[in-house]
Design brief:
With 221 residues, the chain is mainly α. The protein has eleven helices and no strands. The longest helix has 17 residues. This is Metal-dependent phosphohydrolase.
């Protein structure tokens, strides 16, 4: 489901509050919005950006630098070609280049680059308050109602429609088991209290579907 008109306006306003209203900030914001709106995306879209930023709003009380986390969210999937690890690396490089144009301080830029890297593994260190927030915000979709979770899994499958079903099932199952095998899916106090149980139910149910022979939902191109 795409952003509605009101959400699109609010998303642009959120960038302006974060980066300012200067021409450089406007140009960087326009580039980011174009990237998030690329036609090959099915899940990693403007809607994912919007919902992840809203999750940061919920978790911001646990962040050391909530605006730094917001910058990391804007950049974390700005490069998305379905190449785990490499996409995050190139997104971090993009953040370093474009935030300098916006006029952010080197220390803030370095921290945003580091936080984008956290989204490649979703394994922040215990001391890393901002890493916990950016990781949990990115994974908050896992705790959605069943219909929203099924729409999410169908969109992920669509982004990998070029991958044979057998290969996709195996790869997706590894990702889910990696998250479930940790002591927690979520790292913030709020995430553990409010999202953990629902997310585990959703992921275990998805693993059951992946293990079956039933065709996976795949929307039209």
């Amino acid at each position: 489901m795409p952003l509605n008109e009101e959400e699109a306006v609010l998303l642009g306003a959120a960038w302006q509050r974060l980066a300012g209203g200067g021409p450089e900030a406007a140009a960087v914001g326009a580039e980011l919005l174009d990237r998030w709106n690329e036609p090959h995306r099915r899940y990693h879209t403007l809607l994912h950006l919007w919902e992840t930023l809203r999750a940061v709003d919920v978790l911001q009380g646990e962040a050391a630098d909530a605006d730094g986390v917001r910058y990391a969210v804007w950049f974390h999937d700005a490069v998305y070609e379905g190449r785990p690890g490499r996409d995050e690396e190139e997104s971090a490089e993009l953040a370093a280049r474009l935030l300098e144009l916006v006029g952010e301080e080197p220390a803030r830029i370095g921290e945003v680059v580091r936080l984008v890297g956290v989204t490649a593994t979703h394994r922040p260190e215990e001391w890393d308050a901002d890493g916990k927030v950016v990781s949990d915000a990115d994974l908050s979709v896992l705790a959605g109602p069943t219909d929203e979770y099924l729409a999410y899994t169908a969109a992920i499958r669509a982004e990998y429609r070029h991958i044979p079903d057998r290969v996709f099932r195996a790869g997706r199952s590894r990702v889910l088991r990696s998250l479930l095998d940790g002591p927690h899916v979520f790292h913030t106090a709020f995430g553990r209290a409010h999202w953990e149980a629902r997310a585990r139910v959703n992921m275990l149910a998805e693993l059951d579907r992946l293990a079956s022979s039933a065709p996976l939902d795949l929307p039209p191109p």
